[in-house]
Design a protein that fits this description.
Length: 192
């Protein structure tokens, strides 16, 4: 007689379990098992009124915990120390990259005018539209219908946008020019 595998007539007939329909075995992370059990406990009472709030709560918990692990030990650019691998917190990239995630956006850089600021072609720039630019901030601006990233400076009562490439000229802002500061560059994301 063979051992293991599927046997004819074995198991519960489809649709006779507590859910009244065929079921499927699944693997899931242990961290979700208890939460999923809570959802399934309400399943029999009502498929909609009771289950929707549970699913919404589960979604909020997963979104709140959707950050990357941030280890408490900083790393020198050498070999890691396996004895110090404590996770300090989960890093929420939205909160880390911007104080105002609801008013921020990302855009790709092009050109070489900001090389010395560490901005390279195709880098992702995180732009926060809420704060007013301060002297020395990197900003995204529209000048005469052209989008640009420059360093913002005040020189007396004049405003100037300066490239971080000595071969690029500064852009002086005045009432004669149409310009608008879209936001401050808070981070540059560079892929290797």
């Amino acid at each position: 007689m063979a051992r293991g595998g599927k046997r004819v007539g074995a198991g519960r007939p489809p649709g006779t379990g507590k859910y009244g329909e065929p079921t499927k075995a699944m693997r899931l992370p242990i961290s979700l098992a208890d939460q999923l059990s809570e959802v399934l406990a309400t399943w029999g009472r009502s498929r909609f009124e009771d289950i929707v709030p549970q699913l919404q709560r589960l979604r909020r918990q997963r979104q709140a915990g959707s950050g990357l692990p941030l280890y408490s030990q900083a790393v020198a650019a050498g070999l890691p120390d396996p004895s110090r691998d404590e996770i300090d917190e989960e890093l929420d990239l939205n909160a880390y990259l911007s104080q105002h995630p609801e008013s921020s956006f990302c855009v790709r850089a092009r050109g070489d005018s900001m090389m010395e600021a560490g901005i390279q072609m195709e880098d992702l720039l995180v732009v926060d539209t809420v704060p007013e630019p301060q002297d020395g901030d990197l900003v995204m601006a529209v000048v005469d219908a052209e989008l640009m990233v420059k360093r913002f400076h005040r020189q007396g009562d004049r405003l100037v946008l300066v490239s971080e490439n000595p071969q690029q000229p500064a852009v002086w802002l005045s009432q004669e020019r149409e310009f608008y500061i879209l936001g401050i560059i808070t981070h540059v994301i560079h892929a290797f």
